[in-house]
């Protein structure tokens, strides 16, 4: 439900911007700011909640992000003016920045052989959220308006709070913190719920002994070096993902919102998930992402020419399949790189970098498209997608089948 609620809050930006622009007679730059401020908030939130999650626990990070997102999302429906709406949507972005907390938490429960497949499964809830939001907007916007859409879209985040007391802390996180007793208690409860017994042996903490997880000195150096954390940061791919997705929406609705087209292209995420599930463990993370980026660029290129609306929808459908597959795989790859002791912080920082694309994209795409420069916008994003695909091939290591590490310090 966390992924679904995050997807709904992101998806509604495609519908709320044009509606608010019409209501308050905003300029194109002010309309773009409604989306950019959310990504700015996510940039701040991703870093902040990552630190909270690594120091205070995954559960507490989960609780705070859900509270901030739900409260700010609901209150934004009652914003009396543009300034207050921007402030509240920025707070929504701060809450949504906690997405890496959920992915890190889930990843730490999954064994290595099935990790890629199960991370794709949880991504399916993001897809359900986008389809639900497109359906909700199709019904609500023409009848009740954008304020009702904002209020109703905040409900899933509110419902998340009901699941807080049922959510266990990550045993791997507890073990990395030296809390072996708490970790064992959670594992015993999980085993009891599943009608199984825990394997024989003694649970040990990574603070005292390495759990058979070895890395080379080169890998450790690359993990913590500035090059890995900046120029080859996997979440920089989100810059391409965010910009590509927003461009798809703008190319469909720069004159008027076509709820039908948005609804149809949202369904493209399902085959995208199937494609990522089929390739992530067979081709590996790097090859899968790179291939999807290059295929996406092929689907986007014909958009520079005029074509029937049905063909445009079909091309965007194909591009959405590829970018969804890439988005799913990068959220598997990034948490696998970082050790448990700083996984949420690492992915949070990386995700913050990715949000820069989301901030810049509305300012560029809306301005260019409103200025009748759609061809320039398409070529710009086409270049970014291709460069992202090339960047993937330059990543220093593949994580397919590799055990998760709990501390930065590994035996050589």
UniProtKB/TrEMBL annotation:
Chief place of localization: membrane
Pfam families assigned to the protein according to its UniProt record, in alphabetical order: MFS_1 (PF07690), Sugar_tr (PF00083)
InterPro entries: MFS (IPR011701), MFS_dom (IPR020846), MFS_sugar_transport-like (IPR005828), MFS_trans_sf (IPR036259), Sugar_transporter_CS (IPR005829)
Family per similarity comment: Belongs to the major facilitator superfamily. Phosphate:H(+) symporter (TC 2.A.1.9) family.
Membrane-topology descriptor: Multi-pass membrane protein
Identification of the protein by name: Major facilitator superfamily (MFS) profile domain-containing protein
Biased composition (Basic and acidic residues): 225-235
Domain Major facilitator superfamily (MFS) profile: 1-400
Family annotation (PROSITE patterns): MFS, SUGAR_TRANSPORT_1
SUPFAM superfamilies: MFS general substrate transporter
């Amino acid at each position: 439900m966390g992924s679904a609620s995050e997807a709904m809050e992101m998806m509604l930006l495609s519908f709320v911007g044009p509606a608010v622009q019409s209501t308050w007679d905003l300029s194109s730059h002010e309309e773009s700011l409604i989306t950019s401020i959310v990504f700015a908030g996510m940039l701040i939130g991703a870093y902040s909640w990552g630190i909270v999650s690594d120091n205070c626990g995954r559960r507490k990070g989960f609780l705070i992000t859900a509270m901030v997102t739900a409260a700010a999302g609901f209150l934004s429906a009652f914003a009396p003016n543009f300034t207050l709406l921007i402030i509240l949507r920025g707070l929504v972005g701060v809450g949504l920045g906690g997405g890496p907390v959920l992915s890190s938490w889930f990843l730490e429960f999954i064994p290595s052989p099935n990790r890629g497949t199960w991370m794709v499964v949880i991504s399916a809830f993001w897809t359900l959220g986008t389809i639900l939001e497109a359906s909700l907007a199709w019904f609500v916007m023409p009848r009740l308006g954008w304020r009702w859409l904002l209020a109703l879209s905040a409900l899933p985040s509110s419902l998340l709070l009901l699941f807080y007391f049922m959510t266990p802390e990550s045993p791997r996180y507890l073990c990395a913190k030296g809390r072996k007793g708490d970790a064992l208690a959670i594992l015993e409860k999980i085993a009891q719920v599943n009608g199984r017994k825990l394997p024989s042996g003694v649970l040990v903490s990574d603070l005292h002994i390495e759990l058979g997880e070895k890395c080379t000195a080169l890998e450790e150096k690359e993990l913590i070096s500035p090059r890995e954390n900046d120029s080859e940061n996997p979440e920089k791919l989100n810059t391409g993902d965010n910009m590509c997705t927003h461009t798809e929406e703008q190319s469909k609705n720069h004159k008027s919102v076509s709820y039908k087209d948005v609804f149809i292209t949202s369904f493209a995420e399902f085959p995208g998930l199937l494609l990522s599930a089929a390739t992530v463990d067979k081709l590996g993370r790097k090859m899968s992402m790179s291939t999807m980026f290059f295929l996406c660029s092929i689907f986007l290129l014909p958009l520079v020419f005029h074509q029937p609306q049905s063909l445009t929808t079909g091309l965007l459908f194909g591009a959405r399949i590829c970018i969804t597959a890439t988005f799913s795989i990068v959220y598997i790859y990034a948490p696998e790189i970082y050790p448990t002791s700083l996984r949420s912080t690492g992915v949070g920082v990386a995700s913050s970098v990715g949000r820069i694309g989301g901030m810049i994209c509305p300012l560029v795409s809306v301005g260019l498209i409103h200025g009748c420069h759609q061809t320039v916008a398409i070529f710009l994003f086409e270049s970014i997608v291709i460069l992202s695909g090339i960047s993937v091939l330059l990543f220093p290591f593949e994580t397919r089948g590799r055990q998760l590490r709990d501390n930065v310090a590994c035996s050589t």
